[in-house]
Amino acid sequence: MEPGHKPLVDDDGIGAGYSYPRTPSMNVLLVLLGVIEALGVAAIAMVCYWTAHYRGGFAWDGTGQEFNWHPVFMVVGMVFLYGNAILTYRVFRDQVKLGVKILHTVLQIAALIFSIVALVATFDFHNANGIANMYSLHSWVGLIVVILFALQWVLGMSTYLLPFASRWIRTLFMPYHRFFGLVIFAMSIATCLMGLTEKLLFTINDTYSSFAPEGILVNCLGLTLVLFGGFVGYIATREDWKRQPLPEEQPINMSIE
Amino acid sequence: MEPGHKPLVDDDGIGAGYSYPRTPSMNVLLVLLGVIEALGVAAIAMVCYWTAHYRGGFAWDGTGQEFNWHPVFMVVGMVFLYGNAILTYRVFRDQVKLGVKILHTVLQIAALIFSIVALVATFDFHNANGIANMYSLHSWVGLIVVILFALQWVLGMSTYLLPFASRWIRTLFMPYHRFFGLVIFAMSIATCLMGLTEKLLFTINDTYSSFAPEGILVNCLGLTLVLFGGFVGYIATREDWKRQPLPEEQPINMSIE
């Protein structure tokens, strides 16, 4: 927390706008945001190249080509879009809050849709090929993640986007919304790591241990996801990067002070 | 943050003692601590039962029985002891700070020693059986976790336990010490989940998908680790459970106020 600056909170219990001048710490934030986007795009490129080049590409016909949508859509949805949704309040510090909220909501529903299509691709592939569903630790943790995420999305929207919730409920629920948001994000990255591990052992078990290029690529994808998650978590939790209220968003009783 | 209570920080940038009366929120903390210890003990019991009953027990002879120390010691060290080390400042709120610091350090070095022995068991087993080292995503992320943990341990001890670091360095470094502490903890749980997935696919690939009891046991172990990590993360980050200075630990200039 920068000394001498007292953050103002609004009825969501979070800063409602941005009234800082650009400080050196803000420049660090911008650099980190650039690094995060580069890591996210790299992860998507790697998962696409892996599935397209090594795993036969894409289709929607019950074959392994249908399954390939699963890792691609999970990385796009539960990692890249979800991570960027977390960051909206840091990236658009100086925009009007309702707009940032709507963007946060839209990114999260896009993430949820991607993850649901990714789930359907897997179940479809399993059912078409007589493979059992929901037996692995990856599937157990993954299903819990998607259910928690859907709950979080419904509760978050009904509390913060729709106008029904009272101010004290918004304030009371905010620490939980934030905490579960980050926990679900961390769990979704852990689920990706298990999924990558599974897929490599199902497909290239014979050559993985002799450092096959496919294995190295997927390992690098896993590390990229971990780095992406670490940077998002850092930006989301650093105190002095929390969004501060815009001058026009400050409650009247505070402007009297 | 309880309204009207202004937390005092000392030269570590964290609360230095506990001067709260027991509030309802403190009782919730105690209940959660009980749940965490129960989950931790359950995880250790499950990993021991798995390796002893299904995987042939323990030895130190280069066989799979030597490998079995790896999951057991990682769960004990990088999850149970590490998680409890994070919690020391919450559990022993009303104890003198130096004692809590020493306990935090002792638990972390115990965790580090367990994890190093666990690594040796794996490398020993691999080398004795002509299995390649360090090819899997589990091993890549896992080695990074242990290296980051060792670095964090050295930096933490030299900054906060030894008397050389100046007050502003202690204050400056504390948010990073906390953030990396939790990131390393989350990464170690994710590494466990990958390790469990790997071991099941190496051993019971044929029966895992027909819901073999061993697979269900290990899946439950994985979920227990996730729950343990989630609760530890919650207690460690909830603002109003941070340790507050004991009356005698408050700096003189603050007691004048």
TrEMBL record, chains A, B:
Keyword match Transmembrane: yes
GO CC list: lysosomal membrane
TM region(s), chain numbering: 28-52, 72-92, 104-123, 135-155, 176-196, 216-236
Record-linked Pfam families: Cytochrom_B561 (PF03188)
Record GO terms (molecular function): metal ion binding; oxidoreductase activity
Localization per Swiss-Prot or TrEMBL: Membrane
Topology of the protein relative to the lipid bilayer: Multi-pass membrane protein
Cofactor(s) recorded in Swiss-Prot or TrEMBL: heme b
Entry-linked InterPro entries: CYB561/CYBRD1-like, Cyt_b561/ferric_Rdtase_TM
Name of the protein described by the UniProt record: Cytochrome b561-like isoform X1
Source organism of the structure: Branchiostoma floridae
